[in-house]
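hey
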């Protein structure tokens, strides 16, 4: 069998507590994605956060306290803006789902009035 390429999608089995699976399911449903996509997104975030922390530690070893504080503020601002953008995207998806639900209710009412 040939080795998988980095861009290939592979299947793996993961064991977890049912309570964790349920939390992931709630998150996935809220965001309109599969549980698999929610897990993959969270793993990617963790790896990104680990990478950022490693860079911070490397830089902190080489710069003054003042420079480190400035860098920390810039990173905090960046992460806050990233979270705000993600929140806005989720709020947009929620608004879309609410509009679809409202349309569905109108259609059901009209169908009931005509039937």
């Amino acid at each position: 069998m040939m080795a998988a390429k980095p861009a290939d999608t592979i299947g793996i089995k993961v064991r977890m507590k049912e309570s964790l699976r349920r939390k992931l399911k709630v998150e996935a449903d809220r965001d309109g994605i599969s549980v698999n996509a929610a897990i993959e997104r969270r793993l990617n975030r963790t790896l990104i956060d680990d990478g950022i922390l490693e860079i911070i530690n490397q830089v902190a070893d080489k710069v003054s306290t003042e420079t480190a504080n400035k860098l920390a503020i810039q990173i905090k601002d960046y992460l806050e803006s990233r979270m705000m953008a993600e929140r806005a995207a989720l709020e947009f998806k929620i608004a879309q789902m609410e509009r679809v639900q409202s349309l569905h209710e109108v259609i059901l009412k009209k169908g009931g009035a005509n039937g």
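The longest helix spans residues 65-114. The chain has a mean pLDDT of 85.
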